[in-house]
């Protein structure tokens, strides 16, 4: 289990049954809201997920923090389910050495060129490179997240690993700029979709909840419908 999830009071789900209700209610795969949000909600809002102005990784989930502030009264102390796309490069397979698992790699390069005849200096540089490479791999291993030993939730063209926890556990993996793609509370009263291929997120719920989302200036949200086409990251 990821230490990040444990600190947030969340755990990976042992199976995808909590999300089995979603796929039958989705529209055709594509850029429309209905492809990521199950049908049956009264209202929808679209939220841009890229920061305005100069961007840094620390800004990546500012919008999500603001949204959770709005969702908190409607969620109370319910458990919340999160679906993380299985394709992010910073994930690695369960039981695999994270230093060399596919998806990411660490490299150390020498900052000087050593003449071929200077054997002592060449040996020293090789030792320094080996040490730097080991440190880089250790840092990479510490930052990556192990996929759970669990069956993912299967959607058309996409698969997700689920975790469950309190509302704020939605941001448990915030050291990476990629939020969960699917989020919903136990009572399914609202739904958040953050498609991996889009610059926008979608919130669905009742009229009062979506109106509260639209009123929050930090979110820059606009009204939407199931047929709204999202801004695709191409």
Summarize this, please?
This protein has 234 residues and is α+β, with helices and mostly antiparallel strands.
Structural account:
- It is built from four helices and eleven strands; from the N terminus they run H-E-E-H-E-E-H-E-E-E-E-E-E-H-E.
- The protein folds into two domains: 3-93 and 145-224, no CATH class; 105-143.
- The chain is of the alpha+beta class.
- It is 23% helix and 19% strand.
- The two termini are 33 Å apart.
What is the distance, rounded to the nearest whole angstrom, between the alpha carbons of the first and last residues? Answer: 33 Å
Topology as H/E string?
HEEHEEHEEEEEEHE
- Main beta sheet: strand number and arrangement? 9 strands, antiparallel
Q: Fraction of residues in helices?
A: 10-25%
Shape, principal axes of CA atoms:
elongated
Low-confidence stretches: none
How many structural domains in the coordinates?
2
Count the strands? Answer: 11
Main structural class: alpha+beta
What is the subunit arrangement here?
single chain
List the helices and strands and how they pair.
Blueprint: H1 3-7, E1 11-12, E2 43-48, H2 62-75, E3 80-85, E4 91-92, H3 119-143, E5 145-146, E6 153-155, E7 158-165, E8 182-185, E9 191-193, E10 200-205, H4 207-215, E11 222-224
Parallel strand pairs: 4-5
Antiparallel strand pairs: 1-7, 2-10, 2-11, 3-7, 3-8, 6-7, 8-9, 9-10
